[in-house]
Amino acid sequence: MEISEELQCLFSGTVEERDGSYVVEVPEQELRLGELQADETYRVAVLPVPATNEATNTDATPDPEQAPQTPPVEKGEQRTVEIENIGDQGDGIARVERGFVVIVPDTKQTERVTIEITDVRENVAFAEVVERVSYYE
């Protein structure tokens, strides 16, 4: 299965019926740590849970203290990314897996660059430009 680079978050949930509608609750940590905003509209994909030999408890509620997923990048790692936006401080913003944000100074929107990750935090990473890449490469 191909996963879009635009993926903002990924979590497991249960479809519940409430007052004639069906609801999937978004865990609080996805809004607190991610890029989601309350009262905004997002596209949602629903995938089946792979079958297992053990019975699963569908009434179980997710643990709100559950540790967030680890960042999808590591310090020293190099990647080629596209700068999607410019932040309030003037730095470039790129996104990698699960919509994880990487801040890249001295870049312009739509620019393709090879970066090296210099610092990784729980919900954001920082990088420096190693090389500016042509779109034709």
UniProtKB/TrEMBL annotation:
InterPro entries per record: NA-bd_OB-fold, TRAM_dom
Region Disordered, residue ranges: 50-79
One Pfam family this sequence matches: TRAM
Highest rank taxon of the organism: Archaea
The protein's name in its UniProt record: TRAM domain-containing protein
Domain TRAM: 72-131
